[in-house]
Design goal:
With 80 residues, the chain is mainly alpha-helical. The protein has three helices and no strands. The chain has one domain. Helix 2 packs antiparallel against helix 3. Keywords: Membrane, Transmembrane, Transmembrane helix.
């Protein structure tokens, strides 16, 4: 259940960033994902974030950002 919620949260954040911000926000969010993963593992909380899980989350974040970006462009064209 925790992995599914993480994927949904990262996807939602990516789409929302794509709707509003430029690619610098994606770089910052990926860096925050790295720091959060290291902090999660450092505190010894359950559900360690492995390199594989991090790469999957980073890929999902980037794909969701592209989806949000394409929606943003489509909505701007309709408004014109």
């Amino acid at each position: 259940m925790s992995v599914l919620m993480t994927i949904i949260a990262v996807s939602a954040a990516g789409v929302l960033m794509g709707l509003r911000f430029k690619v610098a926000a994606l770089i910052a969010a990926t860096a925050l994902l790295v720091v959060g993963s290291f902090a999660w593992n450092g505190f010894g909380l359950p559900g360690h974030v492995t390199v594989g899980k991090f790469l999957i989350l980073a890929f999902i974040l980037a794909c969701a950002y592209i989806v949000g970006l394409s929606l943003s462009v489509r909505w701007k064209r309709k408004a014109e």
